[in-house]
Design goal:
This protein has 82 residues and is of the alpha+beta class. Helix content is 21%, strand content 45%. The protein is built from 1 helix and 5 strands; from the N terminus they run E-E-E-E-H-E. The longest helix is centred in the C-terminal third of the chain and has 17 residues.
Length: 82
């Protein structure tokens, strides 16, 4: 699952983005990858490991909700087929 969010640009600054990506590990568990920064510039990256899909999805939803409260708007969502 992927969620891409943005804050509209302010003045002459590029828009800020926040990207959440959930992927299954090759061995066991799930990884939530968070990437954020200004479009067109190097961003920051953080990876968090979770033991199962349900826990990882809950963390993704929590992170999404936190960013929405900070003013980000969801631009793109891609669901994972079951």
């Amino acid at each position: 699952m992927r969620i891409y969010m943005q804050i509209p640009p302010e003045g002459n600054k590029a828009p800020r983005y926040y990207h959440l990506h959930l992927q299954e590990d090759l061995i066991d568990g799930w990884t939530l990858i968070r990437e954020w920064g200004y479009q067109g510039a190097a961003g920051r990256l953080r990876k968090e490991h979770y033991p199962d899909r349900e826990t990882a999805e809950a963390a993704l939803v929590k992170a999404r909700d936190e960013q929405i409260r900070r003013g980000y708007q969801v631009v793109f969502i891609q669901a994972v087929p079951e």
